[in-house]
Amino acid sequence: MKKLTTIALGVALSAALAGCGKQGEAPKTEEKAAMADDSGAMAAPAETKHGKGTATVTAIDSAKAQVTLDHGAIAELDWPPMTMGFAAKPELLKDIKVGDKVAFELDWDGKAGTITKLDKAP
Questions:
Q1: pTM, entire model
Q2: Does the keyword Ubl conjugation apply (predicted)?
Q3: Reduced to 3 DSSP states, what percent helix, strand and coil does the chain have, rounded to the nearest 5?
Q4: Count H helices, E strands: the chain?
Q5: I need a labelling partner for 9 at 20 to 30 A (CA). Which of 25, 34, 51, 87 fits?
């Protein structure tokens, strides 16, 4: 048993010393470039996607320039039907009221949506 313990300690000590023997190295130029590319990709904003659909207006907040829509599926964004709020320029909201059926287009940046076109549906 003593012999087995001695061998195990010898192997562990050898492995530890082998790891300590190698000094840390600064990344090579191409490694630095790769790391910069990776961190830059994480900081880059998400790609803006454009979608369109039809909805019923459920709320309008002119002071905050927001409209809440109960919309159908939006294929371009892979969205199921849902109710959600969007930013909208006040001029897009001027002829719209709660209960109106609308056709709309929006830009989605991955976090928030902005209505770019809003018309009463026929």
A1: 0.62
A2: no
A3: 35, 35, 30
A4: 3, 5
A5: 25
Long-range contacts of 82-90 (CB under 8 A, 24+ apart): 83/58, 84/113, 85/59, 86/112, 86/113, 86/114, 86/115, 87/112, 87/113, 87/114, 87/115, 88/114, 88/115, 88/118, 89/65, 89/115, 90/62, 90/65
Q: Give residue-wise pLDDT tens across range 36-91.
A: 445 445 555 578 999 999 999 999 998 999 999 999 999 999 999 999 999 999 99
Q: How far apart (Å, rounded) are the C-alpha atoms in residues 76 and 105? A: 11
Per-residue confidence (pLDDT) for residue 7, from 0 to 100 = 61
CA distance 62 to 97: 11
Q: What is the CA radius of gyration of the chain?
A: 29
Q: What angle do CA 101, 94, 60 make, to 5 degrees?
A: 60
Residue with tokens 């459920």: 58
Q: Pairing relation of β-strands 113-120 and 82-88?
A: parallel
